[in-house]
Amino acid sequence: MKNAKGICLTLALCMGLSPVASAATSIQAAPNQSKIYVDGKEVRLSAYTIKQNNYFKLRDLAYVLSGSHKQFDVTWDNGMGAVKIVPNRAYSTAGHTLTSSAGAGKATPSFNTFLYGGKEIALTAYDIGGNNFVKLRDVGKLLNCSVEWDAAANAIVVDSSKGYTEESGLSQEAKKALQRVTYYGDRSKCTMSQKQMEAYGQKLLDECGDMYETPEETDVFLADLENNGNPYLVVSRPAPGVGAYAPVVYGYVNGKVQILCDCWDGSASGGRVSWLKDGRVLYTEWETNDTTGYGNDISNEYYTFFNGELVEYTEPKKGDWGSEQASPTLNELCYPGFEESERCTNVIEAGNALLEAGRGSVQTERSKMAAAMLEKLNSSNYASLAQAQLIDLNGDGMEELFVLDSFSANLYYWQNGKLMSKETGIWAGGALNWYLCRDTATGELGIEYESIGGGDFSGGSHTFYYLSHTTETTQAEYEAAAARNVRMEALGGDTVSVTNHRDETRAALQAMLK
Q1: What is the pLDDT of residues 240-273, one digit of tens each?
Q2: pLDDT digits (tens, 9 = 90+) for 35-79
Q3: Nearest-angstrom CA–CA distance, 240 and 293
Q4: What distance in Å separates the CA atoms of residue 246 and residue 235, rounded to the nearest whole number?
Q5: Of 251, 370, 393, 455, which is most buried by a Cβ count within 10 Å?
Q6: Among 432, 431, 396, 388, residue whose Cα is nearest residue 415
Q7: Quick count: other Cβ atoms within 10 Å of Cβ 443?
């Protein structure tokens, strides 16, 4: 396993309200120093801040809301092994006292099953001192109870007479752009900020061509792995030299994109992501000693994702999977590299869509052009491109893209809202070279393709490709043609020495997206 945050955690089944808790690596929980008001009255509650979110003891919240319109009871169902939240029922306050947080605490992920009105729900929870601490906004949303921050008073304000509102909504432009990215989970519950979308999109484009060397076979989707509205970014790409695909999983924690799992360790191995019955995701990695990837020595590692962390745990029992064990897998959800699949978006499409969603604005023609050119550039065997260069051939401010690969040279240009292409010569016998040229009559720039020798018994030929026209001449006619079509800098070929502008071209296209 490579770049995995969180090591050797056992799945914590029963914390706080259950008799047994499994050991797990803990993280620091800072006591919350803000004032807390519930229905206009200041109260003392045990509260902690974990990853910039407020966590309160579930029983304390039941206590202070008892008697209000949003009251609820909390019990432990031993038969189901679950914490039961019973709405519209007063909490039994006998023996319950409220205390403030005494100091810093150790928090471990709580994987309790939570039931609300008899139905299983997803709550982000930690065990601190043997009690369940839940995210305040999760409870506010569950009860439709207002949770607000009063910056002037440095206070958290809970008002049971008002309904819940999200911290910030997405613009219509952002929602429209987000529709272009495959999403596993309920889109209507997505709480991802536009800043997070932009960060995800920029991460994809920054690493495309480096980490993702085959973008046409690299598929991307957003997945609400914890069913809490905050999706992870999952990239499925071919593991180098291996037939299987391996996922790369990113999370967004404290305003930054963090890689949680590059799920290929360099051996002949692959990986898959599978949904569990409670809405969480299990990642399974298998490895072999056979370099072909088809050996018999197979071992499995099991992981889940919790509040921006990758957590390893022991092999689940068969019952953990429900009626269909290990199903559906990543390949069933999003078939990597399958051109006819409409379920997935490739890394360039997803990156551009997320950037657009994050910036909340409609793309300009130039940014659309750049996105299309960037996708075309990265769909080639990027590392072996002999040349990739942006040139404004007709001076209209919309650059053209010249690409020379191992088969041919192509000129890509933007016309009527679409990316068009024009072949400007192929690799064949003899000496072949490409040059930037200028038509002295019109001032237009173009591409000269020179073919000398090989199977050409006329002694060679020269073809001048312009956006408006194409002129082909034999070697004998060349001197007259060259008087009009002036050769400028060399772009690539057999007998010329040039600088490959591949990387700076990609950087320039990415800058146009911003």
Answers
A1: 655 556 778 888 877 889 888 776 655 545 555 5
A2: 899 999 999 888 888 877 889 989 899 999 998 989 999 998 888
A3: 11
A4: 8
A5: 370
A6: 396
A7: 9
